[in-house]
Specification:
- Helix content is about 80%, strand content about 0%.
- The chain is mainly alpha-helical and about 120 residues long.
- The chain has one domain (about 30-120).
- It is extended and about 65 Å long.
- The termini are far apart.
Length: about 120
C-alpha cells in the first residue's frame, strides 16, 4: 500500500491550514470563555465575601468553568436550531447544567454562603 508522499511545500501549506483553522475556532469561543470565567469568579467572590475558608478550590473552579462553557455552547446550538423564542427549551438546558454546576460541584456550605451573599447583594 502506497502512502501519500508530501513534499516540503505541501507539508508547510497543510500545517499552516491546520494552525489557521484551530486559531479561528478558538477565537470564536474566546468571548464565551471570558464570560464563563467572569461568572465563576463572581460566584467565588460572593462565597468568599461570606467566608474565605469556603472559597472554591482550583478543581471546582475548573469544573464549573467547563460546565458553564458547555452550557453556553448548548444554549447557542439550541438557539440556532430552534430559534431564540423557545424559552422553555433554554430553561431546561440551564436547569440541567445549573444542577451540575451548583449542586454536584459545590459543597452544601458553599451553596449556603453563596445564597446568603446573593441575598445581601440584592438588598
Amino acid at each position: 500500500m502506497k502512502l501519500l508522499k508530501l513534499n516540503t511545500g505541501s507539508k508547510l501549506i497543510t500545517g499552516l491550514l491546520f494552525i489557521f483553522l484551530s486559531t479561528s475556532l478558538f477565537a470564536q469561543n474566546k468571548g464565551m470563555v471570558t464570560r464563563a470565567n467572569n461568572q465563576i469568579e463572581k460566584i467565588n467572590s460572593l462565597i468568599e465575601s461570606e467566608d474565605k475558608a469556603l472559597a472554591l478550590t482550583k478543581d471546582q473552579m475548573k469544573t464549573m468553568k467547563d460546565l458553564t462553557l458547555q452550557k453556553m455552547q448548548a444554549i447557542s446550538a439550541f438557539r440556532k436550531a430552534n430559534g431564540s423564542d423557545d424559552k422553555e427549551g433554554i430553561r431546561e438546558i440551564q436547569k440541567e447544567y445549573n444542577t451540575k454546576i451548583f449542586k454536584e460541584t459545590m459543597s452544601s456550605e458553599q451553596m449556603k454562603a453563596y445564597r446568603t451573599a446573593q441575598k445581601k447583594a440584592k438588598e
